[in-house]
Amino acid sequence: MRGATHAKWAALATAVALAATACGGGGDSGGGGAGGTVSSSWGDPQNPLEPSNTNEVQGGKVLSMIFRGLKQYDPKTGAANNMLADKIETTDSTNFTITLKDGWTFSNGEKVTAKSFVDAWNYGANLKNNQKNAYFFGYIDGYSQVHPDKGEPTAQTMSGLKVVDDKTFTVKLSQKFSTFPDTLGYAAFAPLPKAFYDDHAAWLSKPVGNGPYTVDSYSKGSQMVLKKWDGYPGADKAQNGGITLKVYTDNNTAYTDLTAGNLDLVDDVPASQLKNVSADLGDRYINTPAGIIQTLSFPFYDPAWNKPGQEKMRTGLSMAIDRKQITETIFQKTRTPAQDWTSPVLGEKGGFKDICGDSCVYNPTEAKKLVAEGGGIPGGTMKISYNADTGSHKEWVDAVCNSINRALGNNTACVGNPVGTFADYRNQVTQGKLNGPFRAGWQMDYPLIQNFLQPLYYTGASSNDGKYTNPEFDKLVNQANAETDTTKAVGLFQQAETVLKNDMGAIPLWYQNGSAGYSDRVENVMLNPFSVPVYDQIKVK
Fold first, then answer.
1. I need a labelling partner for 459 at 20 to 30 A (CA). Which of 134, 213, 250, 261 fits?
2. The predicted structure's pLDDT at residue 244
3. Distance of CA 413 to CAs 296, 360, 368, 434, Å?
4. Cα 252 from chain centroid (whole Å)
């Protein structure tokens, strides 16, 4: 799987959320009941709202309201349930036959057909359309012809996509991928109406989808107004009259508007307010795990950090980090100490399990012993690199180093290495210029254990920035992808994760939680496993 570069650095999504332009505030919440309108904080999308071109949080919020795909992720469990798909069948995890349900249309009245999906996927994959999510189609046969690494496309459509009839199309993959159907709830795989191609500019100015809401108006830098679509055929009909997304440049201002009664929902409670939020909001404060994990990666491309036996040193460093204290004092419990390399939102059936065990539990005595047995820290001092411009990383990096230094009885064992900007930092990461551990994070694209492991730790994967490699890990991942039984596939992925644990290929730090607060005029507010509000289920009192 091509790495999910848009989600790789969770702080990037946060930066986008905080860097929205113009100001917000104000009421205009409409009447109560099913017809009432909900006002929520927001930031202008980075890109036009094309499903295959939106790869950041703010645009994704809109797509979650105006589109429905073959699958829909359960807002509580994250399970990939059929939405427009009636059935997705395969006998070999390579060739899939997809059959659509009857009765689905776009909000302009156009029928959703197999062609609506096939044309949209071909558009998203084609290099000439410059879509940021193109790599999500990389498993489909013929992708390399429409999106070559170099040169011009030699085909306009992927050979692996075939329309059979209005309700049926087939997909042929270039390799086995047993859980491919579960990826199809991601927005990049949404269908598109003919209007998208007939008058692209007009569609971009007012997108037409097939979800429970329609875009009523959008004033960049101010707000977007979405209205409930009364003709929506899905079971998850909007429980309110609409959502008004108000643009804020500062989530502290949004929080102030919330507590003053001028806003109904803030889906990113600012860190500066975490000490006050319980007193301000009581049970109207949400703090729940999201599909985001933060880790420390190692530069395995540096010979000094890639010697036999150093897995003991890396494991010792992991055990020298007091995750519980850091998440409680610095993050005010908006982070949860990590127990594995995935996320709690997967659930036990999805592969979440305490695989790290004692290796992720603070034990200074054992930590000091293992670091010594593993040859010690290369050069005597390790520098944890991080970008200094966003995310307030200095505080937690300093805390991690202080914890390691205490455990090892050496005040210079670990120091922070701030890099000026995110761009500079990413350049150093991707160019392999770091000579010590570095901050990393991953926000899931879809709730599958595969998405937390293969893009990051498979040999040569495009998001494997530390260049970790282990043939046994790769072998187990390949076996898992080829396994048609989902339970067995998850078990194989967990075996691969155990290999990663034994190597301590990266140190799991903590899972990032989603946080939100809401007013007393709304109810039934929740965040889904992607840390996005489930807008359609919010009710106005």
1. 134
2. 98
3. 16, 19, 11, 17
4. 24
